[in-house]
Design brief:
The complex is a heterodimer of chains A (304) and B (415). Chain A has 304 residues and is mainly alpha-helical. Chain A has 13 helices and 4 strands. In chain B, strand 1 (25-31), helix 2 (37-51) and strand 2 (55-61) form a beta-alpha-beta unit. Chain B is of the alpha/beta class and 415 residues long. The chains are: A mainly alpha (304), B alpha/beta (415).
Chain lengths: 304, 415
């Protein structure tokens, strides 16, 4: 008996995921890209090619906002890379110490903020940092550092960094968990072999563990990149759609929202909004490609 | 088949109804004011139905944030109510231009309203008026009477007196002189710039000149309010940069601040929360004896669905909304939202009464950015928020702010 070569089961098993994913992700994505090529003239949708992108990048009013949002987005990302991920790695390294007591408690405590809604985190931190009711000024006062206090969220020069750090506080649990899992997969034999050669303590981490968890760090970096360039919620909750003060916390997400849906007297413009969304998509795509082809393929992997 | 049956049913119902009584009709009101549901059902509708037997009124509000979108789709689908509550300016103008709102310019009740009141619901040339003005909000300052007595300051009428009072309160140290923050931005523009501004640009005169192109935002009349706002920064509480709108409301109602730059919509909330006596004063003029101008901003109107099947009943209702009787009920049930009709209305709440009395002493205008000037990108209203904040913080000079706003406006608006 000859067996059929068409393996129907593959299509059958893939179908649900492909259908759902196509309906809720791929179609809207391409529709957004398509929408960015149109504009509305006298209540009619008209095809204008790349005109919206020309406005976005070359019109001084639009491009100023766009580059401002993009620069803010990069700063937001840089803070996460410099603060969130090193702290995550450090916490994971500490948690993986076998002699640490209450490790499970610390692990959960640090991870819990990740589960909270942006709305709760935004409001809680707004209250903590509030110059009027907040505990931040009082806490600084009790240690005699009141002079260091400033209404951070209201100052152009600090607001974005403050919000980035709030976001770091919320999400530091994710790199911690991923690195922690990677550290647990390192077999004890390797570490013991290292010990025999006199590599212990900090140098064991630096020379043995860190190279072994590098792929995990790469994954975290790309997750952080995608998450940050899609960020919107925290800024919106804390500073509103105008991303004040004076657009200093405006990132691509809030810029897109304001344009697409409109704000106060500003009527929404779905076509320019889609153009911004397409630009965001392209930026993220380029970032991910750089990582996939430029970094990941060159990363050394070790067989454990 | 089903459609024919439905049509027949509708037809027979209509026939039955008209047969029963020549005028019997039920009209439905679309609104975003779901906060006012009780007021409409308990006071306004019974009063109307008592006078007009044969017309039944249903008030069917939706949530404020969804209203515009929901209304648009209902109008397109032909299922919207007979009476439409109108947002001011462009949102309603778009509905009129799309043919959804009926022209009401020749309705006799329209004579009860001033031109300023009607401006929010007119075409740019003023030829058609499509909504009956219902209510406005007035700007001014609410102050803590006990604090004023304690510190020993009088209610200021000129700008010099205003800043002298602020200085004295600040020197006393027991109260934050003025409760306002810049975190949410809109207060700085709405309760700051558009509150004190009309005294500088002479209300309607300046506002119309700006639209007509006779004045520019770089003119003294438009930048001087920024210079005055720049002086406010010293009198706002510590860390006002991060102070939000609810923070300011709480600071004032807890009795920690002496003056609150306000809109009249605060009245009912403040009456409930504050346990001290409050008073109000109007935006101080520059020199004693100057004409005063107030921002008497049109906020709610009411119009008729052009496709309404009960046009006669709807017109009767709108005429009644334009009458002094409606104004009295509405003005007293919602202190701080003032009826716009020319006939003076007796309002019982003392603060609201004080606010509305300014209409007799001063010239009324609306917020400078709302009509026509906020249609394009960059949006002048939103830009004014940022500019007012920058003025208060002192990060940019009034002249620079004026130049920036004018440049943005000119990029899309030709008078």
């Amino acid at each position: 008996m000859q067996r059929s070569n068409t393996r129907w089961h593959i299509a059958v098993f893939l179908a649900p995921a492909v259908l759902v994913y196509t309906a809720v992700m791929i179609v809207p994505l391409f529709n957004t890209l398509r929408l960015s090529l149109y504009t509305e003239i006298d209540q009619h949708r008209v095809f204008v090619g790349l005109e919206n992108f020309r406005t976005l990048f070359l019109d001084p009013i639009w491009s100023k906002q766009f580059w401002n949002a993009l620069a803010n987005n990069f700063w937001f990302f840089v803070i996460h890379m410099l603060v969130q991920n090193p702290i995550g790695i450090l916490l994971a390294a500490i948690l993986s110490q076998p002699r640490l007591r209450f490790a499970a408690f610390y692990r959960s405590a640090i991870f819990i903020p990740t589960l909270l809604s942006f709305v709760i985190v935004g409001f809680a931190w707004k209250l903590i940092l509030s110059p009027i009711w907040g505990i931040a000024p009082d806490l600084l006062n009790t240690v005699g550092l009141k002079s260091l206090y400033a209404p951070w969220l209201g100052k152009e020069e600090y607001a974005l960094t403050t919000l980035a750090l709030v976001s770091v506080w919320q999400f530091v649990g994710i790199p911690m968990m991923l690195i922690y899992a990677a550290l647990l997969t390192i077999p004890d034999e390797i570490l013991e072999a290292g010990e025999m050669d006199g590599i212990t303590g900090f140098s064991a981490f630096w020379k043995i563990k860190l190279p072994l968890i590098l792929p995990a760090i790469g994954i975290i970096s790309i997750l952080t990149f995608v998450g940050n360039f899609n960020a919107f919620d925290l800024i919106y909750v804390a500073q509103g759609a105008l991303a004040g003060p004076d657009y200093s916390t405006d990132i691509l997400g809030t810029f897109m929202y304001r344009t697409f849906f409109g704000f106060q007297l500003q009527l929404g413009d779905p076509h320019m909004g889609s153009a911004i969304a397409s630009a965001m998509f392209t930026i993220i795509l380029i970032g991910v490609c750089i990582y996939l082809f430029g970094i990941q393929t060159r990363m050394r992997r070790y067989q454990l | 088949m089903l459609k024919t049956v439905t049509q027949l049913t509708v037809l027979s119902t209509v026939l039955a109804a008209t047969g029963a009584m020549a005028q019997d009709a039920t009209i439905t009101i679309e609104s975003w004011r779901n906060d006012d549901l009780a007021l409409w059902q308990d006071k306004i509708i019974p009063a109307f139905e008592a006078e007009n037997p044969g017309i039944k009124v249903k008030f069917t509000p939706s949530a404020p944030a969804e209203y515009n979108a929901a209304l648009n789709s209902k109008l397109d689908a032909g299922s919207a109510g007979d009476i439409i509550t109108c947002r001011p300016f462009d949102a309603s103008l778009a509905l009129f231009e799309a043919g959804h709102l009926a022209d009401l310019a020749d309705m006799p009740a329209m004579d009860n309203f001033s031109d300023v009141a009607k401006s929010a619901w007119q075409t740019d040339d003023g030829a058609s008026t499509f909504c009956v003005p219902m209510a406005s909000v007035i700007h001014g300052f609410i102050y803590n009477k006990e604090a004023f007595e304690e510190v020993g300051v009088d209610v200021p009428t000129t700008e010099d007196e205003f800043f002298a009072a602020l200085d004295k309160i600040k020197a006393d140290g027991n109260y934050i002189p003025m409760a306002m923050g810049t975190n949410d931005q809109w207060e700085a523009a709405t309760m700051g710039y558009n509150n004190i501004g009309p005294n500088y640009w002479k209300g309607e005169e300046g506002r119309r000149a700006l639209i007509a192109g006779g004045q520019k935002l770089t003119d003294d009349a438009w930048t001087a309010p920024y210079a005055t706002l720049a002086k406010w920064g010293d009198y706002l509480g510590d860390g006002y940069e991060a102070q939000t709108y609810p923070d300011s409301q709480n600071l004032f109602t807890l009795g920690r601040a002496a003056i609150y730059p306000a809109g009249s919509w605060e009245i009912s909330g403040f009456n409930e929360l504050a346990d001290f006596e409050m008073g109000v004063f109007k935006p101080p003029v520059q020199k004693a004896g100057d004409t005063c101008y107030i921002s008497d901003h049109t906020d709610i109107g009411i119009g008729m669905n052009a496709a309404s099947e009960n046009a006669e009943a709807s017109k009767t209702f709108l005429a009644w909304v334009g009458s002094p009787e409606f104004a009295t009920i509405f003005g007293n049930a919602l202190p701080g939202f003032f009826p716009l009709s020319k006939t003076p209305v007796d309002i019982e709440d003392p603060m609201a009464n004080e606010f509305v009395s300014w209409r007799g002493e001063c010239e009324s205008t609306i917020r400078s950015t709302y009509q026509i000037l906020s249609r394009g990108t960059p949006n002048l209203e939103n830009e004014t928020w940022g500019a007012s904040v920058a003025a208060i913080k002192g990060t940019e000079s009034p002249a620079d702010l004026g130049a920036k706003l004018q440049e943005g406006l000119e990029s899309w608006y030709k008078p």
